[in-house]
Amino acid sequence: MKKALIIVDVQNDFCPGGALAVQEGDQIIPIINRLAQSGQFDRIIATQDWHPANHGSFAANHPGKTPGERIKLGGLDQILWPIHCVQGSHGADFHPELDRSHVDCIFQKGTDPQIDSYSGFYDNGRRKSTGLAEYLHGEGIQQVVVVGLATDYCVKFTALDARQEGFETVLVEDAVRGVNLNPNDVEQAIRAMKAAGVRVVSSDMWQ
Ligand code: VGL
Ligand code: ZN
Question: Most buried of the four, 47, 79, 83, 143, by CB within 10 Å?
Fold first, then answer.
């Protein structure tokens, strides 16, 4: 069975000190590096949140709004975020400790100012593909293993789309961290992924 590792959004802005820092976001990096170096994956993909400065998900682009508030964007319910992962900025760069030497392909998302894109596969309205599904199917991949940030947003929607695309989907629970805007968001995200048929494992599996 051909396997791919999908490393979701391990970028400076989602790590401690970043604009949308996920608690302990950097602690998953050694685990991800070990998986990437294990030689057990046929393809290794990284996704990158890659917003233009005028992106509609930034509270700063909506006068009077603050992060955490909700608006309609592209006809969809949208949580507003601090400015993060602006194309070409340091915050949008991959974390310096992430070993990129085994990464075959990078898929960028969130480039359309009028719609957000949590999943590495499709925007939140499922209107446009990033090309990731086509790439993985074309490479004959059957199983995808998902790691990265953030459990309750981009990791969750990437794993759910992977299932919908027919991939056997595995989440490595110790190689993800979440935002937890509400205290149970990570727990609920993991429950939703399990309900959709995502297998949740520990990175010990690859030791
Ligand atoms: C993400 C919020 C906004 C993520 C990206 O990578 O989980 N979360 N943009
Ligand atoms: Zn974003």
Answer: 47
